[in-house]
């Protein structure tokens, strides 16, 4: 009996350290807009593969494939990127016992200006009160110049040109939604919004990929 219990204790202790090691291994993420780690995989959701160097997976996912949000690279066939779609987070990565393998995902990486922060590849749903054609560079200052504006999204849909979508009701880093690779909208929010601009946010419970209908060429 005692023997069984101590065996079990040992078993669970070893299991704990294996799991702990595994968890920390997949937590060593590097990069900003493209977060990646080694010896890991995001299983499923494949939308394509390409025989190419592992350092190209992130760029192709980000700027060529419209639906790509994450990827896995393995050394099969001399190096293959496996592109994947759909919402993903770092905790979904699993360890992959395959030397040279890499897994990665696109992330929102904020650039902080004095009055506002912005990022590529993101959007804020709802809250629109004005849209205006503009270059991406001018959209932030157009929002700053409008007291009603608390946040903005800039899109460059083919055939429409660049459009600055000014929004009110407030937004935070956490309310930004990643937009897949080639759809690359830019989103931003004001650090100190005018308190008078606080009209209620129009929220939607629809999944992000249903509300995000823009196909951008940014
Ligand atoms: C890899 O991509 C090619 C097309 O480029 C496709 O024909 C093939 O089925 C894919 N392989 C797998 C395992 O999905
Ligand atoms: C964009 O703004 C114009 C007015 O400037 C408005 O008529 C149009 O409905 C707006 N588009 C959307 C999709 O909100
Ligand atoms: C907010 O609105 C009130 C009344 O409309 C106005 O007096 C006040 O100056 C506004 N505050 C700001 C910061 O614009």
TrEMBL record:
InterPro entries: Pan_app (IPR003609). The chain crosses the membrane at residues 6-26. It comes from the Eukaryota. Keywords: Membrane, Transmembrane, Transmembrane helix. Residues 41-84, 124-167 form the Apple domain. This is Apple domain-containing protein.
């Amino acid at each position: 009996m005692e023997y069984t219990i101590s065996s079990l204790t040992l078993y669970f202790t070893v299991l704990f350290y294996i799991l702990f090691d595994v968890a920390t291994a997949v937590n060593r993420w590097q990069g900003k807009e493209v977060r990646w780690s080694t010896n890991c995989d995001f299983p499923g959701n494949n939308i394509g593969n390409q025989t190419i160097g592992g350092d190209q997976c992130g760029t192709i996912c980000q700027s060529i494939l419209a639906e790509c949000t994450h990827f896995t690279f393995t050394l099969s066939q001399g190096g293959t990127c496996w592109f994947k779609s759909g919402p993903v987070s770092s905790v979904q990565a699993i360890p992959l016992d395959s030397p040279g393998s890499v897994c990665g995902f696109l992330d929102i990486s904020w650039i902080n200006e004095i009055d506002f922060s912005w990022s590529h590849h993101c959007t804020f749903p709802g809250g629109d009160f004005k849209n205006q054609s503009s270059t991406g560079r001018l959209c932030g200052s157009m929002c700053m110049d409008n007291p009603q504006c608390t946040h903005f999204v800039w899109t460059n849909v083919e055939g429409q040109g660049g459009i600055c979508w000014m929004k009110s009701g407030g937004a935070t880093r956490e309310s930004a939604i990643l937009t897949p690779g080639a759809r690359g909208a830019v989103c931003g929010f004001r650090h100190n919004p005018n308190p008078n601009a606080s009209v209620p946010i129009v929220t939607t419970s629809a999944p992000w990929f249903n509300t995000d209908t823009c196909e951008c060429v940014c």
